[in-house]
Amino acid sequence: AKENGKNQYRFFDAEIEQASDEMQQTRIELKKAITEQEFRLLFQPKVDAMTRLVYGAEALLRWQHPSRGLLSPTSFIEAAERFGMIEEINAWVISQTCHTISQARARGIDLNISVNLSSQQFRNKQLGMHIQSILEAHQVDARNLILEVSATNVTHPQIPFKETLRDFSQQGLKISLDDFGLHPVNLTHLQDLEVNEVKLDRSLTRHVATSAPALAIVEAMVKLAHALGLNVVAEGVEEEDQRRALTSVGCDQMQGYLFSRPVEQQFLFDAFSQLQLK
Ligand code: C2E
Ligand code: CA
Ligand code: CA
Ligand code: CA
């Protein structure tokens, strides 16, 4: 029995070793992805609920992995955060987004684009300044950039969200509270966090056409957000019935496969000139 126990222990050891080998491998690959510029941005159009006119987009990161193909951020953001690489990656995202905003402007298009920040980044007190310097380098106006922050971690006691969001607001940067409704959130935080917008998570919007209680919950959230002067975006809208239900309870803007999947910059510009999707 003793022998057996020892073997099991050895087996376990080998497993840990393999896991850390994989981590090590991911770390090396991510580093290379940064230096070799293997990242790409796609843009998902955002439309006005009433007119269905395209008014902006959300920048979504992709990793063109040399052997594993095009990867969604869900498969590597956590690792990037763990290895302390997220700031550098997101700085690239913001810079690239500013480039797209200025390219749009050169075509006479006034685009407003949102980017996803990682809650890790809020540990950095210079974050607002840093974003400001990227905007200046590209001569992009702060009002054209929206910073999406997940509602999930926004109450983390060790991260100065409140202070950073106040800085953003003073700099004229717009903030959108992402993943709203995904997890229980203390609604009273909405009154002391300086945000401009909430994004209703797909887990909330997906049932609005088929479940009266789901629609009632969304309606109450829209009312609350509006009472606080916030803009409401519904994400993950896939069906016309969902669009209709969400519009009926007052959602301001929408995003989802019904209108468009995330697309390359050029297609975003094309969508903008066609203006109306669906
Ligand atoms: P998110 O910010 O909640 O983004 C929405 C996700 O839903 C995106 O997945 C988008 O492609 C997908 N989506 C959009 N419309 C629909 C729809 O109608 N139906 C369905 N089923 N899905 C839809 P994606 O691009 O894989 O991104 C996943 C998450 O990765 C994002 O969730 C965001 O949290 C994170 N992320 C994306 N880009 C960045 C980035 O540049 N930096 C950081 N730190 N995180 C990012
Ligand atoms: Ca988002
Ligand atoms: Ca979201
Ligand atoms: Ca999400």
From TrEMBL:
Domain EAL: 23-276
Coiled-coil regions, chain positions: 2-36
Domain of life: Bacteria
Name this protein carries in UniProt: Diguanylate cyclase/phosphodiesterase
Source organism per UniProt: Methylophilus rhizosphaerae
